[in-house]
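Weekly structure sync, notes
Attendees: PL (lead), two postdocs, one rotation student
Agenda item 3: pending single-chain targets
PL asked that the sequence for the first pending target be pasted directly into the notes so everyone works from the same version. It is reproduced below exactly as submitted, 135 residues in total.
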Amino acid sequence: MSRKSAREIAMKMAYEKFFNTEDTYATVCEISGAEGEPSPEDIDFANGIADGIESNGPEIDALIAAASNGWALERMPMVDLSILRVAVYELMFDKKAPQKVIINEAVRIAGKYGGDDSPRFINGVLGNIARAEAK
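Predicted structure, written out during the meeting:
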C-alpha cells in the first residue's frame, strides 16, 4: 500500500462518519476492496487523519465554508466534503506533506470518486485555503 491509498482510505473513513459508523482502517479496506496489505505506517497515517478530522472538525468545516465561495456545507456532495476534510486537515494541522502534493492528491481522489465537477471544485477550494494560509 502507499500514502496515496492511505489517503483514499482516510477519505472513505471520513465519508463513513456521515453515517455515524465507527469503521476502522481495516474494515474500510475490506469493504472498499483496497488491494495490498497496508503497512503499519499507512494505518497510522490514515487513522491519524481520521482522528484529526474528528478533533478539529469545526475548524476544518469553517475553513472549507469560508473558501467555498457561497457553497453551504450541507449542499456539498458528501464525497467532496470528505475529500476536502482530509486535505484541509493535512494542509492546516498535519503539515507533513507539501501543499502541492496534498492538493494534487485530493484532486486525483475527486476524479476517481467524485462527480464531473468535483476535481475543479476541490482544487478551487483548496487553492483558496492555501492562498489564505500563505498571507
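Discussion points:
- Residues 3-134 form a domain with the N-utilizing Substance Protein B Homolog; Chain A fold (CATH 1.10.940.10).
- Residues 78-94 form the longest helix (17 residues).
Action: rotation student to compare against the earlier draft before next sync.
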